[in-house]
Write a structure and sequence with these properties.
Shape of chain A: elongated
Oligomer: heterodimer
Structural class of chain B: mainly beta
Strand content of chain B: over 45%
Strand content of chain A: over 45%
Radius of gyration of chain B: 35 Å
Largest interface: A-B, 25 and 27 residues
Structural class of chain A: mainly beta
């Protein structure tokens, strides 16, 4: 008769094994790159031999069950003791390349332009600032302009432009380039399913994936623009472009800033540049795993289960608003953190090696990880990070212990 | 024992005879570069009347040498301890043995080879040959470029000392020694220096073959005298085959102002010049004496603003030149520019005019060392204080120095510099020819005027 504690363990694991077999969508990673050659004799004690490089043997007595189902289960599922010296636990780390991640950018509303400061004489197409003399005599030599069209020789005026904001609406869907990140996982096997020669266990994984997706599409915008006109006072204006220094020497313009005159009707411009999502995805997964040995050194594992993740990062915009040959610069950023969730299905091919005397393996894998989208928005700008079709390809190394 | 010291010859030789032995030794050169090979030729002759046995010649060096080859007409040779020993065995009567020793030495300094000949039954003979090992062989030259303009007492002036390595090797550890006469104050120098008595020592480091170093010294002579400027060059581990150009002496006359009666008074209010951003004021300079002035200097004292178009400083006061004769009874307007353009208190008592020799504005050095810049436009100004003046516009690098050169002809013969040097305030410079003091006369009073602009090094 087998000991009573073995009976309990066998019954409990039988139920767990069936539950796992019925419920799991995916199969987990597990690493045992060694030959499984387990043969259950007819009746009586079922010896389980799991040959290892050292030739150790593991023996387990099956349950002495009375019902048929339980007996059959006992013969098919064999418990791997938690303290077995048969390396059931593994830790692996590797690099991942993530594909099929996209983002939808949406921009709608009125936006202020950050790039100029007309109150301090900084315009889209030049500047008129206070020079080192403190604008002695009411003049400044610290000015510059970009285009000859800004100078009206007959009126002897120099006109500067400043765009204070723009209105636009636009959408864009952008498929991201492959993203590259890091994957860590830990797992254990506790059951051997004889008919399929499969080892059953669990795995816990964590991956870190930086994601950067840029939208460089152009938008049409209505621009709020002001003009600021300076009398040149009879000086010979240097040819365009001209950039005066702060010393106060050189041709002078009036140092008092004129009031801005709005351009009416508001001109139509083009918004170029980029809007980008610069996010980091941290995802935690947990699920059952299944492992088959194909040859003595080559094995395959599958795993699956739920995933929960955190997406955190910034929406950055760096835009140039072009209107009437004048450009203004607009840039900014806002951040967000969103929780996402989903599932995963993972398959890996593993090759047994010895790393500094330790049993280890190299792996190549693929993982389908559909997750919910992350939404980030502020002030009329929004983006949805679409993670519903994520596919990861991974490669790395694992260690058995 | 007989000791002989040989130095200073390209090929040094020595013969000594004693008790039947004759020892002659020569060296290929008494001055050797540390990278070069040198050799000793030694001849030992038996004059004893009988065969000598156990004959040895030992070469012992005072410093480290590398033995490249040792040959002898008879016997063997080898290194014993720190010596090279020729073992000649028996030297037949009235015969000679010839030995050759080829070496290099890396350490600079003097190297002594003590050659000792020994044989049974005779007195030892010793020769000593001293040679100099030099780290480098270079012809260093020093040259003084005196101030361009005539120097008046208390002028802040500058001169250049140019040290050149004419080769063939590089010159490490070059030291320039500079000397002034009493009454000359060193205000500053373009390179760090230390004092040795009244001399300034400039450690110039290593000068490569063909390279040169320009040391500029800013001085203030305080006495009327002929100022003797002296510069000498040297390097401790260097052999200079041509010492005649290692010292330069230049005499610069320091004089007072020429006798004259010049008067300067303000001739306008202070006005902001909108074209150049400076405050300008016209000064009327008159020669009320009976003697013509070859040129004039206007010194302005007590200024609270910078005299922007000053070309020099006397004492602590800036000055401008009228670079044209001012005949007795003549007057001319000089335009002074002040920076910043804030109104400043000013009285005629701040103006001091003197007759001076004609300043030198020949552009030879500027043209030789600078880059010609294309002029974008030349405009005759018509507005306000600039009416009648010519303005040239050229592209510039902000804060880069430029020099304007002008001439009355397109070939630029007899060209002159328009002082002072321009420091570009922006990406374009608008330089105005407003006449004296930058040019001798207003451009409209000249039959023709051509301009060139050079970007200074």
């Amino acid at each position: 008769m087998p000991p009573s504690h073995l009976k309990k363990n066998a019954r409990w694991h039988n139920l767990l094994a069936w539950g796992v077999a019925c419920c799991c969508v995916g199969v987990g990673r597990e690493a045992m790159a060694q030959t499984n050659s387990i043969t259950a004799p007819e009746g009586g004690v079922l010896p389980l031999e799991m040959p290892k490089p050292e030739g150790r043997k593991l023996k387990i007595k099956p349950d002495d069950a009375k019902d048929k189902i339980s007996r059959e289960a006992s013969r098919n599922f064999i418990l791997i003791p938690p303290h077995s010296e048969d390396w059931t636990r593994h830790f692996q780390m590797g690099a991942i390349a993530a594909l099929n991640i996209s983002a939808k950018f949406h921009e709608s509303g009125d936006f202020k332009i950050s790039g100029n400061d007309p109150q301090h004489g900084i315009y889209d197409d030049g500047y008129v600032r206070t020079d080192d003399t403190g604008n002695a005599g009411g003049y400044t030599g610290y000015w510059g302009y970009q285009k000859a069209s800004q100078y009206n020789a007959s009126a002897q005026t120099l006109t500067f432009h400043s765009s204070s904001g723009f209105s636009t609406t636009g959408d864009a869907k952008v498929n991201g380039d492959p993203s590259f990140g890091l994957d860590l996982s830990y797992g254990d096997d506790f059951l051997y399913y004889k008919p399929a020669h499969v080892r059953i266990g669990w795995e816990l994984g964590l991956n870190f994936l930086p994601i950067n997706i840029k939208d460089v599409s152009q938008l049409t915008a209505t621009v709020n623009q002001f003009t600021y006109t300076f009398a040149t006072g009879g000086i010979v204006v240097p040819g365009a472009p001209y950039h005066g220094g702060s010393s106060g020497q050189g041709p002078l313009l009036p140092g008092d800033l004129p009031a801005g005159v709005p351009v009416s009707p508001e001109p139509t411009g083009v918004v170029t540049g980029k809007r980008s999502l610069d996010m980091n995805l941290f995802a935690l997964r947990l699920g059952p795993s299944f492992f088959w040995d194909i040859t003595r050194n080559l094995g395959v594992s599958v795993s699956g289960g739920p995933v929960i993740g955190c997406v955190t990062g910034n929406y950055d915009y760096d835009e140039t608003i072009l209107v009437g040959g004048v450009s203004s610069h607009n840039q900014g950023s806002f951040g967000a953190t969103e929780m996402v969730y989903g599932g995963y299905l993972n398959g890996q091919l593993k090759y047994h090696i010895v790393d500094n005397g330790r049993n280890a393996y190299l792996f190549l894998g693929a993982q389908y990880t559909p997750m919910t989208s992350a939404h980030i928005s502020s002030g009329g700008r929004s983006a949805d990070l679409d993670l519903s079709g994520q596919i990861y390809f991974s490669a790395g190394m694992g260690w058995l212990f | 024992m007989l000791w002989v010291l040989l130095t200073g010859c390209l090929t040094s030789g020595l013969r000594v005879d004693a008790q039947g032995l004759g020892l002659t030794s020569t060296v290929s050169s008494s001055l050797v570069l540390s990278t070069n090979v040198f050799s000793y030729s030694i001849t030992l002759t038996n004059f004893s009347g009988f065969d000598l046995t156990n004959v040895f010649v030992t070469n012992t060096f005072s410093g480290s040498v590398s033995l490249l080859a040792a040959t002898n007409s008879q016997g063997t040779n080898g290194i014993v301890g720190a010596s090279v020993v020729f073992s000649l065995d028996t030297l037949t009567n009235h015969t000679s043995a010839i030995m050759l020793l080829t070496n290099t030495a890396s350490a600079a300094g003097f190297l002594t080879n003590t050659i000792v000949a020994t044989a049974s039954g005779v007195t030892n003979l010793t020769n000593t040959i001293v040679i100099q090992i030099a780290a480098s062989l270079s012809d260093l030259a020093v040259q003084i470029i005196p101030p361009v303009q005539a120097v008046i007492t208390n002028d802040l002036t500058a001169y250049d000392v140019i040290v050149t390595n004419l080769g063939p090797g590089s010159a490490p550890g070059v030291v320039l020694t500079n000397t002034f006469p009493p009454g000359v104050i060193l205000k500053s120098a373009s390179q760090a220096f230390s004092l040795s008595g009244s001399n300034q020592l400039f450690n110039l480091g290593t000068i490569a073959t063909g390279g040169s170093v320009d040391v500029r010294l800013y001085i203030q002579p305080t006495n009327v005298e002929t100022m003797s400027l002296t510069a000498s060059i040297g390097a401790p581990s260097l052999v200079d085959p041509n010492p005649t150009n290692d010292v330069a002496v230049t005499n610069v006359p320091v004089s007072g102002y020429l006798p004259s009666t010049l008067i300067a008074v303000t001739n306008s209010s202070q006005n902001i010049n909108l074209q150049n951003g400076l405050l300008e004021q016209t000064i009327l300079l008159s020669n009320t004496g009976t003697t013509d002035a070859p040129a004039a200097r206007l010194v302005v004292t007590g200024l609270t603003n910078q005299l922007f178009n000053a070309v020099g400083t006397n004492g602590s006061s800036p000055f401008v030149y009228l670079s044209a004769p001012l005949l007795a009874g003549q007057s001319v307007n000089l335009v002074l520019f002040y920076n910043p353009r804030t109104l400043l208190p000013f009285t005629n008592g701040q103006l001091h005019a003197y007759a001076v020799p004609m300043p030198v504005w020949t552009p030879a050095r500027v043209v030789a060392t600078s880059t010609n810049v294309n002029i974008i436009s030349i405009v005759k100004l018509t507005k306000s204080v600039n009416n009648g003046r010519m303005m040239i516009e050229f592209p510039a690098i902000t804060n880069q120095a430029y020099t304007v050169v002008y001439s009355t002809n397109a070939l630029f013969s007899k060209a002159m510099i328009a002082p002072p040097v321009i420091i570009a305030p922006g990406s374009k410079v608008q330089w105005i020819d407003y006449g004296p003091p930058t040019t001798p006369s207003a451009p409209m009073n000249s039959p023709a005027r051509f301009y060139r602009v050079y970007q200074n090094p």
